[in-house]
């Protein structure tokens, strides 16, 4: 059965590429490319937030953002090497998804408001220059959280694979799983096309933020 719709899968892999691209370009001090990846992350996260309300069943926040009791129960199941077969994120995966969206978005936004006073001004720096110092500090602190959440994500994938004998990667590639139960993540061709178009549009709009700099006027 289908467990992940196509727009969600395109978002997932695009988001992964942009996060790693932002990290790599930042370490190489290629600020133009770093900025482009950051802006793409803004557009992608905006899409994911919207898709969390209008996407397929497994994409919707209401399907996986649950209360503390559900989170603790799901965590207990993981400790006992049990995993639900229901399609979509577990309660633990739901909280992880929110963190994986929020931290890169925070990094992208704070970077966009930052400046090093030498070679780089973020595209939003001139809108609130008095906030650039705080934004820069938050950006530096956020780097540690980026590495932490990536390590936790990889660790969770490894735990599912080796301890629970469940490979989470193929369904995110094909969109299908032969062991899943529950409501399938089905979308019409029209809604799928609309979702892909929305993703592309939001990334393009985010990229146009470079024109907010004074030298574009």
Write down the CATH class: Mainly Alpha
Query: What do the pLDDT scores average to?
Result: 93
Identify the CATH architecture.
Up-down Bundle
Number of extended strands: 0
Q: Counting H and I runs of at least 4 residues, what is the number of helices? A: 8
The portion of residues forming beta strands comes to under 5%
Q: How many strands, what sense, and barrel or not for the largest sheet?
A: none
Secondary-structure class: mainly alpha
Distance linking N and C termini: 52 Å
- In the residues, how many domains can be counted? 1
Q: What radius of gyration results from the CA coordinates?
A: 19 Å
Protein architecture, described:
The chain is mainly α and 217 residues long. The chain has one domain (6-216): Fumarate Reductase Cytochrome B subunit (Up-down Bundle). Helices cover 65% and strands 0% of the residues. The chain is built from eight helices and no strands. It has helices at 6-27, 31-54, 61-64, 68-79, 91-112, 132-162, 169-174, 189-207. The longest helix has 31 residues, at 132-162. It is globular, with a radius of gyration of 19 Å. The mean pLDDT is 93.
């Amino acid at each position: 059965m289908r467990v992940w719709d196509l727009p969600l899968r395109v978002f997932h892999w695009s988001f992964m590429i942009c996060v790693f691209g932002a990290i790599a370009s930042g370490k190489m001090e290629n600020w133009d490319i770093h900025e482009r990846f950051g802006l793409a992350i803004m557009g992608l996260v905006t899409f994911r937030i919207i898709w969390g309300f209008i996407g397929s069943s497994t994409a919707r926040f209401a399907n996986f953002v649950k209360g503390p009791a559900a989170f603790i129960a799901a965590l207990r199941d993981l400790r006992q090497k049990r995993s639900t077969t229901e399609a979509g994120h577990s309660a633990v995966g739901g909280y992880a998804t929110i963190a994986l969206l929020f931290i890169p978005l925070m990094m992208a936004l704070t970077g966009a408001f930052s400046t090093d006073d030498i070679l780089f001004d973020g595209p939003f720096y001139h809108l609130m220059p008095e906030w650039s110092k705080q934004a820069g500090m938050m950006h530096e602190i956020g780097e540690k959280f980026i590495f932490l959440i990536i390590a936790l994500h990889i660790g969770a994938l490894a735990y599912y694979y080796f301890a629970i004998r469940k490979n989470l990667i193929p369904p995110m590639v094909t969109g299908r799983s032969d062991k899943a139960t529950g409501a399938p993540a089905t979308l019409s061709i029209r809604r799928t096309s609309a979702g892909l178009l929305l993703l592309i549009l939001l990334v393009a709009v985010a990229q146009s933020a470079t024109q907010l700099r004074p030298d574009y006027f």
